[in-house]
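Allow me, if you will, to draw on your knowledge of protein folds for a short while. I have a record of one protein: its chain in single-letter code and its fold written as discrete structure tokens. I should value your view on which stretches of the chain appear to form regular backbone elements. Thank you for your consideration; the sequence and its tokens are set out here:
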Amino acid sequence: MKTVGIVAEYNPLHLGHSRQFGRIRREFGGETAIVCAMSGNFVQRGAPAIVDKTLRAKAAVLCGADLVVELPTTVSLSSAEGFAAGGVGILSTLCDTLCFGAETADTERLMGTARALLSDAFPPLLREALDWGLSFPAARAAALSRMGLDAPLLPNDILAVEYCKAIVSQNSQMAIFPIHREGSYHAETADGENPSATAVRRLMLEGGSWQAYVPEPARDIFASAQTHTLAAGERAVLAQLRTMTEGEFEALPYGGEGLWRKLMHASRECASLEEILTAVKSKRYTHTRLTRMVMCAYLGITEESLAAPAPYVRVLAFNEKGRAVLSAAKKTGVFRNAGEPVHHPYQALERRWGDLYGLFSTGAPEAPGSEKRRRVVYEMQNAEC
């Protein structure tokens, strides 16, 4: 059976995602199994997911996916490179092809850029550009330009190149199937044909009409779901930052070049999270790097724990076709059902993160213990989207 993987967040799932499912099946056939490695309750920009991971996984299976497994939190809160590497590592055990959206859906160009980034010539040019005071994305673009490459470096292109890098560096056997990503990745106004997740989230949180931008089978799930935002949990985050020791700040990921010290001082002087981020931000550091750093501080994730491989991957939702994919990978011992007890210290971290997610609820704080109660979602078949 043909298996195609997608690394995603579905924050929330919208029409563009369901079209991707349809495009895969038109390209590879209706019997193709679609496997999604999806961020859990925390997403790569350093924020809580708007809706709980189990509900987002259920929506994905109802709208075209066959199996949804969880990207470990330590992968979801990694840089683009770590996020892509984690997703590719998981999907390589399940899939023969990786599908992703990109502004530049050119296989040769994407793979060529990936190989350039992995070449011995790239690191010294990158370091030189960073020494000029450029942010990492700008420095990377400058280094590639000096190598004579017109590299695709728009938002989805950057992640697409990281997927290609991971495939090359991990010697993965997955082929790639890039799809042209239309519309603006961060648009705050929803486009009827190509809505962005940013725009749909905004409508959901502001009481706007978002239903037309979400596949019909997912609407009831999201309509009745409790929403979560960083703003709703700001005081919980501030409480953690204000009580951290110097050693705890120093142990944070992304805190190199004294950035952890700047965050520590700002946390002890500023009243709000926005003031802290403004005080720490500079041309050198992207906003998402800072928000990921703050979220790691809140969740108790150190540089060491972020870099450590997760010992297993949680299965969140599947249908009968997805069950067959899982059965074929059972011998790996990597995949564990949601809520299944595992005698490993990582499970205590999972439960901690689940409890802390509940403090981002836009309604009343949610009771702890969600990870213990969690169950895998089984759907008999996909709905038509």
Remarks:
- The longest helix spans residues 155-169.
- Residues 231-306 form one domain.
- The chain has two domains: 3-106+152-224+310-378, 231-306.
- Strands lie at 3-8, 33-39, 42-43, 47-48, 67-71, 97-102, 175-180, 313-318, 335-337, 377-378.
